[in-house]
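Late entry, evening session. Most of the bench is empty. Finally got around to the prediction I had been postponing all week. Sequence below, unchanged from the version circulated by S.P.
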Amino acid sequence: MSPRMRTGWTGRVRPSRYRALQPWPLAWLTVLWIALWGSASVGNVVLGFAVAVAVSWFFPLPPVDLGSKVRFWPLVWLVVHFIGDVLKASVQVSLVVLRRRPVRNAVVKVDLHSNSDFVLTGVAAMLTLVPGSVVLEARRSTHTLFLHVLDTDDEAAVEKFRAEAFAVEERFLRAFEPLPEFRVDAPTLAAAAAAREEESR
C-alpha cells in the first residue's frame, strides 16, 4: 500500500461519537467561534465550546492519519519565517504599487518534491497567504502548484521564486516530519513522479 493511501478510516464505518470529541478540533472550533463573535468573554468561550462539542458530536468527521509527527522547534521556525515572509512581501508589494511603473507578472510552475497531499495543501496555503503570490491550480496527480506571481519579469525572478517555494516545502517537512512508514526514498519518489506526469498527459 502506498504511503498516500494509508488512512485511519476506510469510509465504510461511521466514526464513533466519543472519538469525534478530540481536544484539538474542539479547541480550534472554540477559537473560531470567539474570532467570529470578536469577544473572549467567559460566556462566549463557554458557549463556543458547547457549540464545538455539539458540532463534533452530531457531525463527526472520519479520523485522518496525516502520516507525520510535529516537531516543536522546526514548527516555531516555520511560523516565525512565515510571518517574516508576509512582512517582507507586504513591503515589496507596496513598493511595486508606489513605483507606478508597468509590472510584468508570471505564472510559475512548482513541482513539489513531496508526494504528500498534506504537504501540498500546507505549502499551497502558505504561499497564497504571502502577498504577491496566489495559487491558481494545485494538481494532485503530479503534486504541482501553478502560482500567479507579482513583478516577475525574467527567468531569474522565476527561478528565485521557485527556490523560495521549495524552501517553504523544506521547512514544512522539517516541522511535520513524515513517519517512517510514510517515507519514500528518492528513486521511488522520482519513479512515482514520472508515472504521475505520464498519467496526466
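Two things to note before I forget:
The first strand starts at residue 68 and ends at 70.
The longest helix spans residues 72-99.
Will write this up properly tomorrow.
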